Amino acid sequence: MPFLIAILLGKEGTRMTGGVIVSTIRYGKPSITNIEPELGRSIFHTILSTPKPDHEKLGQQADEILRQFLEADEKRNHTGSDSWAL
C-alpha cells in the first residue's frame, strides 16, 4: 500500500515510464565516525593484519577448477547426460 500511495502522490524516486513503474530506494552511507573508538580500532586492526592474497596460488586453483569443469563438460557431451557432476 505505501508503494501505491507513493505513486499517487508522486513521491521522489518513483516514476511511471511506458506503463512500467520504476522505483529507486536510497540508502544512507554509513559513517565510521559514529562508531565506538574501540570498535573502530578493532576494525582497522583486522584490516591491517589480514594477510595479502597469494594471486599465483589462487590462479592455479582457478585453473584446476576450470580444467575439472571442462573435463566434466566434455564427458557430459559424449555421454548425453544432463548431469554436471564432477
What can you tell me about this protein's structure?
Helices cover about 55% and strands about 10% of the residues. The N terminus is likely disordered. It starts with a helix and ends in a 7-residue tail after the last helix. It has a two-stranded antiparallel ribbon with strand order 1-2. It is mainly alpha-helical.
Query: Order of strands in the sheet with the most strands?
Result: 1-2
The Cα radius of gyration reads: 26 Å
End-to-end distance? 48 Å
Q: What pattern of helices and strands is seen along the backbone?
A: HEEHH
Helix content: 40-55%
How many DSSP helices?
3
Please describe the topology of this protein.
Blueprint: H1 2-9, E1 14-17, E2 20-23, H2 37-49, H3 55-79
Antiparallel strand pairs: 1-2
Features:
86 residues, 53% helix, 2 strands, mainly alpha, disordered N terminus, two-stranded antiparallel ribbon
Short characterization:
By secondary structure, the chain is mainly alpha-helical.
